[in-house]
Amino acid sequence: MKKGGLLRRMVEYKYFYLLVAPMLVYFIVFEYVPLYGLMLAFKEFNFAKGITGSEWIGLANFEEIFRLDDFWVAFRNTVIIAFGRLIFEFPVPIIIAMLLNEVRKARMKKFYQVVYTFPHFLSWVIIGGILINFLGTFGVLNQLLELLGFEKVNLLVDPDSFRALIFGSSLWRDMGWGTIIYLAAIAGINPALYEAASIDGANRLKQILHITWPGIAGTVAVLFILNVGAMMSSGGGGFDQIFNLYNPAVYEKADILDTYVYRRTFAVGESFGTSTAVGLLKSVINFALLYTANRAAKRLGQEGIF
Amino acid sequence: MINGKKGLLFMLSIALFASILAACSGGANSPNENASPAAPSGGSEASGSASEDPFAEHMDISISHYNIGQAFPDRKSDGLLKMIEDKFNVTFVDRVVSYSDYVEKYRIWSTSGELPDVISHDIINNSTYYSWIEQGIVRALPSDLGAYPNIRKVMELEDVKGFQVDGKYYMIPRLTYNSNEQKALERALIVRKDWMEALSLPEPVTYEDYANMLAAFAKKDPNGNQKDDTIGLTARTNNMLMAVGSGSFPNVANSSWVKEDGQYIPFYASKRMDEYVTRMRELYTSGAIDPDFAIVQTNEGIEKFGQGRAGAIAMQATPSGLKLLETAWNKYNKNAAFKDSIRIYPISWETDDGSRYSFEMLSFWSETYFSANVSDKKMERIMRIYDYLLSDEYMTTNLYGLEGKDYTKEGDKYTIAREKGEDGNYKKLPELYPSLNLFGSLAAWYKWQEYEQSEIAKINLGEPVYHLVQETLAEFVKLDVIPTNLNVDYLYTEAKTKLSAVNPTEDLIKVILGKDDPVEMWRNIVKGYDNKGLQQAIKEVNEAVQAQGLDQ
Amino acid sequence: MKQRSTVADYFIHAFLMLLAVISISPFYNVIITSFADPAAVNEQSFYLIPTSFDLSSYEMLLKGSYIGYSVMNSLIVTFAGTLVNMLVTTCGAYALSKKGMPGRGVMMSGIIFTMLFSGGLIPFYLTIKNLHMINTYSAMILPVAVSTFFLIVMISQFRTIPRDLEESAKIDGANDIYILFRIVIPIVKPTMAAITLFYTVARWNEWYYAMLFMTETKMYPMQLFLRNMLLDVTKMARDDMGAAMVAQLSQIYPDGLKMASVVLTMTPIMLVYPFLQKHFAAGVTLGAVKE
Predict the structure, then answer these.
(1) A137 and B110: CB-CB below 8 Å?
(2) What is the CATH number of domain A70-299?
(3) Which of A25, B234, B506, C131 has a CB 3.0–4.6 Å from the CB of B301, allowing a cystine?
(4) What is the Cα–Cα distance from A26 to C145, expressed in whole angstroms?
């Protein structure tokens, strides 16, 4: 009985299988087949023998990096910065999108939309240079401070202000870009709902809370879960930014796993086993976080991603 | 939810299955199986007899070299390329790498068995060097170098001998200098003479001289514009900045190992660091060092000096280095000539015993490696090409171009007949022959040619830089050389390689910027190095020094 | 009924305008520096009023035989790549949004698994090599055919479509594929436009895969070409380099070069904007009933 039901359903969905086929091929060929590389985390890589022929060494790679103080500093920073991004950076594009939605003139709205995305196109190399112009000893900020009679500050080499700098510059660069997806979600809300609400006498704040917000809550939930699931991976686009902005003076607060591994490989030479081990560690933690976020979203009445 | 968990399990088992599949299929994933050096290939007809033309068989030679991407824009019009390819009956196939991606590319190619026949890499003090040799990624040079006298000369240099592995050479070092004297200009302090005069500063000799001069540049408005916009000391790289304090401890400049209390230790573990960090901290707090030094990018210091914002820059006073600085200067200063505005001093002050030091380093940077897939026959051809590139005949070509076309020679006299550009100057040789981007640095950097006292050097460098180099060299050769045991520096032991994770320059930056007592800070940092295997490395190194008789 | 502007409106406008100023202000400097002569820049503490016009940074970037190729490569990869991206992702997302499809759960879990776990560079490179895609356009298009991130966003959007819509179309005799392209996509047009933009920018900015898989400079896309030029020419601190490098190094004005490369990479994207913009703010089509 069951088997008949399954087959019948599969036939019913035959077009869907067609639709999903190219994507499945992609995933199998480019994402699944290469997965065997994960073995390397437990091996000592030998150039001649390749990944499959190299020797198994159990957890030795992990032991080697866990021994190093610097690794734990990087680990701690990765977690702290990732959480910081979630708290400080995640909500901002949402709020801006909702504000933008309140703008009545379509032309102004378009203007803002386009302009906000500009900073996204600057690479971190350039932004690093801009920041130095602003915050360096002879930069704008210090010239202003001098004018007002204060002492000069050197924010870029101060570990205590560096994280704020990371969040701030990240916000500046990507808050506009982040609004795009929320604006698209808002655009999908039926305008009739707004009309009905205002006829019922709801003011704008009420409309935002009861129409706009629920309208994008699903998108917010999905993006939240996805962000959480990428936290350990440089907390979302972190490597480029931190690599271009940091300096030895702020390592203790800013060095993340990716930049740490990068420097180590550069100095000591190739160590594929340990790099893969660190990658595997990050993946496992991401997985746990993703699962948790997904369940939390479901508890709150939203759809998770699986 | 149940679906999800089952799905996960299912996918995990697929992953496992895929990996088992991959393991069984062997071939695609163990690409270096034929990586044994003794694998001869190639035609059997043209084999052997030395009486025949050794270049009878045409060969394709694949090369990866820094910035080879610029070498072959138009192969047909490049006379030099044609000459060399015809001479040896080869075609050079470029596998493009550039300075910004060569490390990644070599990393990938070495794991997939795709290394080109000839590659340029700089891994001599790296675990990768030994892994590649041990695991058969690169092949050894022929043991008999009799047919290649020029190569043999290079391999017999003092600082090359120590790199043999099991009695064989696995690379050809890319020589920068062919005499120790020339190394002296690798570190120098280039100072604004006009600012010194404006502030009536004496020629710097002692620490106090240096400290006062650099601080004065920052604080006493040397350019007289009533603005607080100048800095004292900047540098091309932070490494070179650190060398400014080497008067207190010379070995900091070239990051070498020193012998202290009867055993060799890395410079950063020495007691002499106490004075060094104290003085560097003083230089920073007094304003002598650029307050932004920790965030300045590589080469930015050159721009700053050219823009007239810095009083002194720590960098190389080599011909190329000075040429760079001069060009930066000319960009921003149309009225003042470079040569007249600067003076070149030793990078640091006099030590307590009255010595002043000039630089010491390996005579080469980066090496040529040969893929293990290269047959003995091909290796022979490559060796011939390298031997030619290291010959006097080629060095003349490198400097003057093609005989008859770019120059004529009568006896000892060279007359330059090169094409001239629109500005009336001789066109640069790499413009006429782009393949010089490859050949001009493949077998060696040929930097010693820049030090020759000849007309061609004057033309290439321009008179001002030419004279600056000669004058400064004459002064610097009188200085003492940093006492360095290069054999110990480049010794290979496991713990010593692990120790490369230590980055003293970065930690020095922290100490210089810090607020606590610098000596204490540094001692704590060194204690932290124990965690990275410092003591083990010291032990292993000294044992090896004993065993191999490397003590000096 | 037209609503009057309230105090809240003024605050909102002020805030948004402030954000706009903050977003644009550095670009003024970027553009004028890209056209500037270094000596002129040095004369002012902050280069605010352009006192020079110098095209040498652009010349440096645009001369040479490879720039033409690189622009062409970028255009091809961006067009073809985005097309592949959108086709594969949209079809796949629609299928996966159907809870009733047997095997869906397994597929979703599998896909999310790959989002989290990766086998590393070596196996990936070997896969591409074994498929003979080295030094081909496919190497920049196929291995990035689907972004799991965008896929999941698209799936969640498809889920918001009410079933009645699709069912009534089925009754009228439409098959699932027709429904997808003629009915569903127009409803979620804003999200489609957004993701198209994201993919376009991603393909345009791609350089890493090009660096790994392209063995000839002729095949480099513009981003890689510019990146190499910038890094090679500004990062060399060693003295040991060919004479040609020294000659090159000394001609450039590093800041100008950086700014010019920004202008060059941004301009084409800015031209794409107007086409996609009209879809963002579009309201829902008539007749749709959404909760």
Answers:
(1) no
(2) 1.10.3720.10
(3) B234
(4) 7
DSSP state of B99: T
Question: CA neighbours within 13 Å on the CB side: how many for B372?
Answer: 23
CATH, domain B188-358, list 3.40.710.10, 3.40.190.10, 3.10.100.10, 1.10.3720.10: 3.40.190.10
* C3: pLDDT strictly greater than 70: no
Quote the domain boundaries for residue C10. 1-54
| From A236-240, A241-245, B456-460, B461-465, the region with the lowest mean pLDDT | A236-240
CB spacing of C122 vs B112 below 8 angstroms: yes
Please check whether residue C191 is in contact with residue A181, taking contact to mean a CB–CB distance below 8 angstroms.
yes
Model-level pTM?
A: 0.88
CA distance B49 to chain C (A): 37
Count of structural domains, chain C? 2
What is the complex's ipTM, to 2 decimals? 0.90
Looking at chain B from residue 490 to 519, which residues have their Cβ under 8 Å from any Cβ of chain C? none
- Give the best residue of B1, B19, B108 to mutate against chain C (max C CB count within 10 A): B108
Claim to verify: residue C91 and residue C222 sit in the same structural domain: yes
Q: Are residues C233 and C205 part of one domain?
A: yes
Instruction: Give strand pairing partners of B370.
Output: B118
Cβ neighbour number for residue B36 with a 10 Å cutoff: 12
Residue C69: CA count within 13 A, CB half-sphere = 12
Q: How many helices (H) and strands (E) does chain A have?
A: 17, 2
pLDDT, residue C250, reads: 62
pLDDT one-digit tens code per residue, A136-184: 888 888 888 988 988 888 889 999 899 999 999 999 999 989 999 999 9
- Judge residue B374's burial from the number of C-beta atoms within 10 Å of its C-beta, 0-12 exposed, 13-18 middle, 19 or more buried: buried
Do B298 and C215 make contact, defined as CB atoms within 8 angstroms?
A: no
* Edge-to-edge strand list for the sheet holding B172-175: B90-94, B59-64, B118-121, B364-370, B172-175
* Beta bridge mates, B345: B189
C-alpha B543/C-alpha B491 separation (Å) is 11
